[in-house]
Write a structure and sequence with these properties.
With 267 residues, the chain is of the alpha/beta class. 40% of the residues lie in helices and 16% in strands. The protein has a single domain, classed as 3-Layer(aba) Sandwich (Rossmann fold). It contains ten helices and eight strands. Strand 7, helix 7 and strand 8 form a beta-alpha-beta unit. Helix 1 packs across helix 9.
Length: 267
Amino acid sequence: MALIAVTASKSSPGATVTSLALTLAWPRAAVLAECDPSGGSVLTGYLAGHTPADRGLAQLAVADYHGRLYDAFASQLVYLDDREPQRLLLPGVTDPAQAAGLTSSWDRLGDYLRQLDRSEPPVDVIADCGRIPALNAPLALIRHADVVLVVIGRTLGAVDAAASRLALLRREVESRGGVVRLIVRGRGDYDAREIAKRLETPVLTELPEDSKTAGMLSLGTGTPRPSATLLRAARSAAEPLQTLIDQRRNALAVPASGATARETARA
């Protein structure tokens, strides 16, 4: 399918739990890429430290320095679980200071991740990009995303904080054919329709309050069942995401086809 970037803004629920829930509920093979410059948390959280922290973005940045990013990518992945379809993790940096070394790699990594849906078998990528804006934020990677999902809470503070972030993200992705959508989470005074109207941005889906499952995902206190409320809601987001991405890619293909036809006629 595509590259989907997940972000959050100040005063909003975390992007990591949302990204992990989407990945675990995904209907096809998927990679969760921890691109949050503040550091990855899945190895020590959901995976509870059972997987060695010897792979990930930091090692990939070294490989990229030597011109081997594409060759080294697969060797930096770890399994999220042993179910089918495959769900893999590209662990994030363990020290925020390491994120500075990724600045020159974000663009190439984003381009590569977007093309993984053409692999055999095809793989979709969900990139947890953390809060935007932030020091060393992966904006160059986000530009390659087909869809950017902004996780937002239902409070006035969350909605106000999101306004400027959404303007930034639209500038980054819409010029290249990507789209920005909201995921509404948590409790508060505002419903999804009010938030969409205030921010002039459609809501893709709402994720319910499910503290038990969220705790499992963030703290590694257990493995949530596929029937868990949060995972069911995340699974329901896959179809509208697929439809949205197909529409955008078809729209981008039409001008390209028209240009080719005109060039052929001139020749």
